[in-house]
Amino acid sequence: MRILHVLLTVLFLMLQGAAGQVFPRPDNSCLIQNGRCFPGICRRPYYWIGTCSNGYSCCRMGWSR
Q1: pLDDT band at 1; cut points 50, 70, 90
Q2: pLDDT tens by residue, 27-37
Q3: Ramachandran region of residue 12, left (φ > 0), alpha (ψ -120 to 50) or beta?
Q4: How far apart are the C-alpha atoms of 60 and 43, rounded to whole Å?
Q5: Which position among 3, 11, 15, 45 has the lowest Cβ density within 10 Å, counted as fewest Cβ atoms?
């Protein structure tokens, strides 16, 4: 009975992982910092503030004074 419980748990975790790849959640960590995800490096007037979950650069527009 315990083995059945473990097998069902593993199956559930595998289905959760597959669903996450088919329906990826949006990356809000960059948006929270008022940034945007760009492939490659950040170009003017943007500057790098981090990395997005998909590997892109999280860039924010620089403030000119």
Answers
A1: confident
A2: 578 988 899 99
A3: alpha
A4: 10
A5: 3
Question: Which of 65, 62, 64, 31 has the alpha carbon at shortest distance from 44?
Answer: 62
Give the number of other Cβ atoms within 10 Å of residue 35's Cβ: 21
Q: Which residues contact 35 (CB under 8 A, 6 or more apart)?
A: 49, 50, 58, 59, 60
- As a residue count, the chain comes to 65
End-to-end CA distance of the chain: 68
The answer to whether the CB of 44 falls within 8 A of the CB of 54 is: no
In one letter, which amino acid is 3?
I
